């Protein structure tokens, strides 16, 4: 088992920098180079072996093909001038989706499993007090952020998202809290843990970015386009992706699926209204932060009863 002290820089900061670069630089060249450097460092430190490295390289390749097909920037002019054949796009898309799901489920071998927070996270009423961490999801988030979604073109437009995100939070957080408390999956546990900042960095950049780009920026966007000819096509797309998002949290039990579905609907709705992935990411992070700071985290001891 690797020590968290010895690997914290690689685990927490380097993948996050690659994601931050995706928003700081219009072209993803810097992010892609950062990802490749991170793979090299991970190999050197023993945090990733050949199967994991090969999966990320394949994911990166498929993401470039997807970005070219969607006319998103890929960072290299020589590639930008060419459109891949439809057969190549189809195969790459299937492989891409399979890898995203496998990496998100930690089903790809080749990544070291290290302690993320070894101490109890949130009071004495939690179902579990420890979290473990691997590089698969941070690398997935970095690839998705670099190549698979359009970003806000200016800081001013990002700031304009504060109001719709705040309204959505005020609307849906009480609903999620009431249902969570009523079903016993949550219990009040007001606190401010010193672990919050480390948790927040990873949760915002690795969990919220990865999940929102995949579910809203890719699945919901394409579902909305496919159903555009129907009168309520955008609503059907929103509902379907929200249900998928809830199902993705089945590991937490059926009560958690209900909460995740409602939360997914809120994230999808703010994305639908603003057409900005940043709005969904910020709302997702705000809900998760409220969960961490105000309630038992990740869930109450009696959540499975």
Task: Please give a quick description of this structure.
The protein folds into two domains: 4-147, no CATH class; 155-304, no CATH class.
Q: What's the average pLDDT?
A: 89
Indicate the multimeric state: single chain
Compute the number of helices: 12
Q: Largest sheet, order of strands side by side?
A: 1-2
Element-level helix/strand string: HHHHHEEHHHHHHH
Q: Low-confidence segments, ≥5 residues, pLDDT <50?
A: none
Task: State the end-to-end CA separation.
Answer: 32 Å
Helix content: 55-70%
Class from helix and strand fractions = mainly alpha
Count of individual domains: 2
Compute the CA-based radius of gyration. 19 Å
Molecular shape: globular
- State which percent range the strand residues make up: under 5%
Count the beta strands: 2
Main beta sheet: 2 strands, antiparallel
Task: Give the secondary structure arrangement, pairings included.
Elements lengths: L3 H21 L4 H17 L4 H20 L7 H4 L5 H19 L9 E4 L13 E3 L2 H12 L7 H5 L2 H22 L12 H31 L6 H15 L6 H21 L2 H18 L11
Antiparallel strand pairs: 1-2
Helix pairs in contact: 1-2, 1-6, 1-9, 2-3, 2-6, 3-5, 3-6, 6-9, 8-11, 8-12, 9-10, 9-12, 10-11, 11-12
């Amino acid at each position: 088992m690797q020590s968290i002290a010895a690997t914290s820089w690689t685990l927490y900061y380097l993948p996050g920098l690659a994601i931050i670069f995706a928003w700081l630089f219009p072209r993803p060249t810097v992010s892609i180079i950062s990802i490749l450097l991170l793979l090299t460092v991970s190999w050197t430190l023993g945090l990733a072996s050949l199967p994991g490295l090969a999966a990320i390289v394949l994911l990166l390749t498929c993401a470039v093909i997807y970005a070219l097909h969607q006319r998103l920037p890929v960072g290299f002019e020589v590639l930008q001038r060419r459109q891949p054949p439809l057969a190549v796009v189809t195969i790459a898309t299937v492989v891409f989706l399979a890898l995203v799901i496998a990496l998100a489920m930690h089903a790809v071998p080749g990544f070291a499993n290290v302690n993320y927070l070894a101490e109890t996270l949130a009071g004495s009423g939690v179902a579990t007090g420890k979290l473990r961490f691997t590089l698969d999801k941070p690398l997935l988030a970095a690839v998705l952020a670099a190549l698979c979604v359009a970003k806000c073109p200016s800081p001013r437009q990002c700031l304009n998202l504060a109001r719709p995100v705040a309204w959505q939070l005020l609307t849906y957080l009480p609903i999620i809290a009431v249902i969570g408390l009523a079903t016993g999956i949550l219990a009040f546990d007001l606190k401010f843990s010193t672990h919050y900042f480390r948790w927040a960095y990873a949760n915002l950049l690795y969990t919220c970015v990865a999940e929102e780009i995949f579910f809203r920026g890719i699945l919901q966007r394409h579902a909305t386009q496919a159903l555009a000819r129907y009168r309520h096509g955008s609503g059907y797309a929103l509902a379907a992706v929200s249900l998928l998002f809830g199902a993705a949290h089945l590991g937490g039990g059926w009560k958690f699926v209900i909460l995740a579905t409602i939360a997914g609907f809120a994230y999808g709705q703010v994305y639908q209204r603003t057409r900005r992935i940043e709005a969904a990411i910020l709302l997702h992070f705000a809900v998760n932060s409220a969960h961490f700071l105000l309630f038992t985290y990740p869930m109450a001891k009696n959540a499975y009863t």
